[in-house]
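Please check this protein record:
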Amino acid sequence: MKKDFWLERWERKEIGFHQDEINPYLRQYWQNLYLARDSLVFVPLCGKSRDMLWLRDQVHQVLGVELSNIAAQEFFKESGHAPQQIKHKKFDEYEADDIRILCGDFFDLGKDDLENVIAVYDRASLIALPPEMRESYARHLASILPPATQILLITVEYTQTEMPGPPFSVTADEVEALYREHGEVRLLRQADVLAQNPRFRERGLSRLQESIFLLTLH
């Protein structure tokens, strides 16, 4: 999946993946990470997710990475902030009110960019990637995060032939395969949610399951 796909989605306002409400699993399971105040939380492929505001309200610092400048600009505009903007070699940086977004390619991130990260919130990153990119994503993420980083990961699972992604179906077995060499994989919950998501029924799905994982890197 090429970068232009996502850039064009933002330009055309085709952002059905964006959620206006705070994710209920984030509210319910974030406390399982037992983070200290002012911990730095990383949100990959963050878009303009309002979940970043919720994380900031838990007295965390938030660092997002996002391909589209439009997404970052809209996030700060909609949250009522005029961010400071700094242009780096590989990223355009936007920052305001303890939230910083780096606009550029996730795979250009290095250890120095994430050296103070304590936790990761991944609701829309892994499931945005087609199968051929997910192993590279997981390997790169694990390689640039500090040891013992915790990851709250939310995935969806359905019969992939019934609907083209994104979001793509990611099974619990695949999550285990992607991350077991990098750390501990703990499944917190699985829930059937098709009844609560009529737009996916309309797209032809016969089942839809959400899974919540807590990963702890070695």
